[in-house]
Amino acid sequence: MSSRPATLGQLCESGWVSRTVKEELRRNALQSIKEGRELFPDVLGFEDTVIPQVENALLAGHDIVFLGERGQAKTRLIRRLVDLLDEWMPVIAGSEINDDPYAPISRYAKDLIAAHGEDTRIDWVHRADRFGEKLATPDTSVADLIGEVDPIKVAEGRYLSDELTLHYGLVPRTNRGIFAMNELPDLAERIQVGLLNVLEERDVQVRGYKVRLPLDVLLVASANPEDYTNRGRLITPLKDRFGAQIRTHYPPTTDIEMAIVAQEATPFVAEGISVRVPKFMDEIIATITHLARASGNINQRSGVSVRLSVSNHETLVANAARRALGHGEDEVVPRVSDLDALVSSTAGKVEIETLEEGRDGQIIDQLLRGAVLTVFKSRVSGETFRGIVETFDSGLVVDAGEDVPSTTFVRTVSQVEDLRGPVQALTEGDESPAMVASAVEFLLEGLHLSKRLNKDAAGTKASYRSRA
């Protein structure tokens, strides 16, 4: 920073060029596209749908509304726009609204330049500080967004007509930056009116003052479709002023859902413990969410967030760790029996629609069993069933559940030779006791759900036996 211009005169000599925030975003977005760099590298599943629309909006210089259900990365997309700003931006030192040294808009900055000329001091603002965000709540006021008279400044001896008595709101303080309004339809309609000038005339007005602040702001908002039409409403003049309305969506495939979980889930770290999650268990977690999004028993208007997959993954690993430590094992590998723990993390993430009392647990259980069966059918060939089922027909009974240590399942594989091939395929050659136990439980539960084995369950204990 010591090498950067410190005064207005030095800034002019450096050749720095002033650009509007939308010109800045356009230039940097074009450069990223030209170089083949991803604009949103940590936002997965939008590469061919949402992101091209965002790029178009930025290149066109449009203010944007992101419309989508909860958990569709709307806020993340908005916050990542900051990365497209220049890393550093010069402002008049002491300015509350990031005054452009070449075109100041506040009375403070104008007076400072008039008094000091080329010796006016310059500060540099990092792009992270050029982002403002507000969650629309019922108590949000025009003063919060635009500004209000500061009684303390009046008490200090200034006249009410003095522009310096103003306390600027969030929008002016984000001048030459990006301002985000989350859940915009929840903002009272009379407050939405206060944003009209920001979007069209690019200025703000505070109470009865003859003050015009020609702000330079990219305004971005998010909205839930349900709120957009029912609980809240976006007034027509404000909706008309946004240049782009971009519809987000949930991950279209379980593979993308799994990649998001791997990126977002908090790693389970504990001294002396190794945690591994088999791919088929990751698939089950992702499939639970996808089945919930297609279920008639789940309120689809409020959506089923990706956070469901993340939360379920973390709960699954936590329960597996608790079970493994109870057996004195230091290797944590989730099993099908650990899925029962997901009732709590699932119930808090979905809105179940049922008229019957106590049906919530049954609906979640159906999702869990449906996910196991779906992954089982996609991963295990039907040709492998016959030998395993015949072994059970001869009288074999296998116990499973939280109270069964991993080594017990290793002995089961040695007893049922036909289990060895499917287990090796599921564990991808990893024959540690915990991985073998997870694969065996998955196979047994899949055979039960596909009506090839019977299962006697009581609490966390289960026994698999022949249907004969």
First and last CA, distance: 80 Å
Strand order within the widest beta sheet: 4-7-10-1-11
CATH class of the largest domain: Alpha Beta
Give the DSSP E fraction (strand runs of 2 or more residues). Answer: 5-15%
In the residues, how many domains can be counted?
A: 2
CATH superfamily membership of the largest domain, which one? P-loop containing nucleotide triphosphate hydrolases
Mean pLDDT: 89
Indicate the percent of residues in helices. Answer: 40-55%
Please tell me what the overall shape is: elongated
Q: What is the number of E strands?
A: 16
Could you tell me the CATH topology label of the largest domain.
Rossmann fold
* Radius of gyration, CA atoms, in whole angstroms: 30 Å
Largest sheet: 5 strands, parallel
Number of helices: 21
What would you say the CATH architecture of the largest domain is? Answer: 3-Layer(aba) Sandwich
Structural class: alpha/beta
Uncertain residue segments:
none
Features:
21 helices; five-stranded parallel beta sheet; 2 domains; 14% strand; alpha/beta; 468 residues; three-stranded antiparallel beta sheet; Rossmann fold
